[in-house]
Amino acid sequence: MFKEIVTKDKIYQHNNILSFWCYLDKVQTFINNISNSKDDKQYVVEVTEYKESRSLKANAYMWKLASMIGNKIGNTKEFVYFKALKDSATDKTFESGFMLKTAFERMQSRYKYIEIESEMIRNEKEWVEYKYYYGSSTFNSKEMYNLIMELRREGIEQGLDVRTPSEIQEMTSKYGKEFE
């Protein structure tokens, strides 16, 4: 049923949910195929806009930057990464809310990128306002770009060479070995 719509390597199935990407004109073909099938099953079709995910190269470069900065400032790459998550955050890369401080302490032991924004007492109970930052594995390419640019900015501020391997290769081929 799907062969004329997508190729096999673009179909993902998990827990009876079939996911694939295609252009909008192919969605109608898919719906027609389901409508014309002889089974009595009911289907739910959800169409969402495709957003390019971050690349493995971008991820490796991001961690390289975090490691270099961490080494320079005498801290861990995870510390640098969390700081960059906060500094590059947009309204889509974190969540915030209020909860009892005791609940926050349990939550904090389960989630890495969470912190207290403020504390208060209401009705004789301690409450906290918190922010939870999503990790970069959930980022689309634009969010990953913003995170990398924040790390590059920090790296430059620390006096580090933050060029990508392709930037170094391009400059070396243009200007010679002095740019390696």
Summarize this structure as a short list of keywords or feature phrases.
180 residues, alpha+beta, 2 domains, three-stranded antiparallel beta sheet, two-stranded antiparallel ribbon, 6 helices, flat, disordered N terminus
Distance between the termini: 53 Å
Shape: flat
In order across it, which strands form the biggest sheet?
3-5-4
Oligomer: single chain
Fraction of residues in helix: 40-55%
Residue runs with pLDDT of under 50 for 5 or more positions: 1-9
How many helices in DSSP terms? 6
β-strand amount = 15-25%
Question: Can you tell me about this structure?
Answer:
With 180 residues, this protein is α+β, with helices and mostly antiparallel strands. Helices cover 44% and strands 18% of the residues. It folds into two domains: 1-50, no CATH class; 56-179, no CATH class. The chain has six helices and five strands. A three-stranded antiparallel sheet has the order 3-5-4. Strands 1-2 form a two-stranded antiparallel ribbon. Strand 1 and strand 2 (17-20) form a beta hairpin. The longest helix is centred in the middle third of the chain and has 18 residues, at 56-73.
List the helices and strands and how they pair.
Elements: E1 11-14, E2 17-20, H1 24-35, H2 56-73, H3 77-87, E3 94-100, H4 101-110, E4 114-122, E5 125-133, H5 141-157, H6 165-175
Antiparallel strand pairs: 1-2, 3-5, 4-5
Helix pairs in contact: 2-3, 2-5, 3-5
